[in-house]
Task: inverse folding
């Protein structure tokens, strides 16, 4: 893999495109020390970033939740993303806007820091690999839990909230799994380390209520696609002991798209037509075939 700091191309940063290797920040940037950063993950299909404005608005909302409102409007962020995609000559790409507090002040307080914004794009195929789309993923059970909404800004796509996700994914991969299922602070099923989760039982989809994790843009899209197919979607609290009763399962996310699951810990699932059909519906939609 080519390191991400040693690539050709352009990154949009604070209002202008810069050569990829020159898009840098100072070592004393507040975000590096205190996780004061928010980001987005989107995908570009055939030259169009799927639901770009929703991603840009969520970036703005996340920054506001962390207390550093951004001086760029949603339309300006949309334009920066499109400019970056075009400058890199990509029609199919992963898109990463990120906003952070700068290096004007060091310490827990960040009142004097300035907000910064950058956009990078790169080619990125199936997040879990093409084989996973056919055979399904294997998930371990994470020991870390998603925090309660009164302990962290869980409605923000904030960098600091992903620390336990990285730790959980590393532990799962070390044990031979693809990813990990995370419970929440109550012990209920929450999500994977970077994607929402759905389960199929008796023709209906069940998915955890997003009250302490992100209500993903892809999640909402797939719920709409399922209802268009006439599939009932039930958002509710799901407890681990219920997992043995579900027939199929899958993850959703801008990176993961729609990826089926084959197992979670001791529980097994069929990679069936319901999941594969929704995956095709999603692919058709984002590629302009629907």
Result:
């Amino acid at each position: 893999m080519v390191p991400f700091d040693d690539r050709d191309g352009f990154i949009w940063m604070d209002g202008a495109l810069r050569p990829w290797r020159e898009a840098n920040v100072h070592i004393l940037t507040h975000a590096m020390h205190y996780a004061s950063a928010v980001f987005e993950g989107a995908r570009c299909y055939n030259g169009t970033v799927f639901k770009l404005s929703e991603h840009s608005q969520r970036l703005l909302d996340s920054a506001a939740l962390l207390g550093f409102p951004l001086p760029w409007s949603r339309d300006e962020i949309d334009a920066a993303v499109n400019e970056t995609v075009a400058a890199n000559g990509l029609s199919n790409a992963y898109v990463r806007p990120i906003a952070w507090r700068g290096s004007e002040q060091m310490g827990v307080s960040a009142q004097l820091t300035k907000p910064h914004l950058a956009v990078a794009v790169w080619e990125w195929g199936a997040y879990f690999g093409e084989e996973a789309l056919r055979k399904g993923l294997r998930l371990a059970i994470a020991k870390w839990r998603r925090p309660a909404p009164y302990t962290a800004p869980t409605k923000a796509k904030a960098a600091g909230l992903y620390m336990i996700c990285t730790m959980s994914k590393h532990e799962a991969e070390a044990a031979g799994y693809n990813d990990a299922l995370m419970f929440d602070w109550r012990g209920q099923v929450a999500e994977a380390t970077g994607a929402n989760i759905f389960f199929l039982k008796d023709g209906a989809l069940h998915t955890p209520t997003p009250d302490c994790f992100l209500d993903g843009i892809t999640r909402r899209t797939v719920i709409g696609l399922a209802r268009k197919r006439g599939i009932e979607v039930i958002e509710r609290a799901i407890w681990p002991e219920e997992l043995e009763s579900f027939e199929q399962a899958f993850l959703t996310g801008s990176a993961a798209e729609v990826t089926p699951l084959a197992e979670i810990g001791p529980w097994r699932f069929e990679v069936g037509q319901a999941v594969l059909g929704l995956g095709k519906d999603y692919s058709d939609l984002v590629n302009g075939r629907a």
User: Anything to note?
Assistant: The longest helix spans residues 52-65. The chain has two domains: 10-122, 130-286. The mean pLDDT is 97.
